[in-house]
Write a structure and sequence with these properties.
Shape: globular
Radius of gyration: 12 Å
Keywords: Kinase, Phosphoprotein, Phosphotransferase system, Sugar transport, Transferase, Transport
Distance between the termini: 11 Å
Protein name: Cellobiose PTS family porter IIB component
CATH class: Alpha Beta
Order of helices and strands: EHEHEHEH
GO molecular function: kinase activity; protein-N(PI)-phosphohistidine-sugar phosphotransferase activity
Strand content: 15-25%
């Protein structure tokens, strides 16, 4: 199963977005395990190459370059989440699901 990780400031709202996105993708027949963690834990998860795709939240975009370099070292995909895809309403979840599908 493909695994995707949202890296955010704290992990609270991102956990909700991850769950809703995982559910929507499952409804579409796409099995993706999605989780969310804060920046320090995200850096560790990238270094350990635990996920197939890393998604960097808008509020942590200042870390993207560092995360991108780390993901490249372990051969994993990483993208920045646009603000429109980072809201836990149906429109935002659909955009997040599309972002995941484009990058897995």
């Amino acid at each position: 199963m493909t695994k995707a990780l949202i890296i955010c400031a704290g992990g609270m709202s991102s956990s909700l977005i991850a769950r809703k996105t995982q559910s929507l993708l499952a409804e579409q027949g796409i099995e993706v395990e999605m989780n969310a963690v804060g920046v320090p834990e995200g850096a560790k998860r990238i270094a350990a190459a635990e996920y197939d795709l890393y998604l960097v939240s808008p509020q942590t975009k200042m870390h993207f370059k560092q995360f991108s370099e780390a993901a490249k070292k372990v051969g994993k995909a990483i993208v920045q989440i646009p603000p429109q895809a980072y809201i836990p309403i149906p429109m935002g979840i659909e955009k997040m699901a599309a972002l995941v599908k484009e990058n897995i």
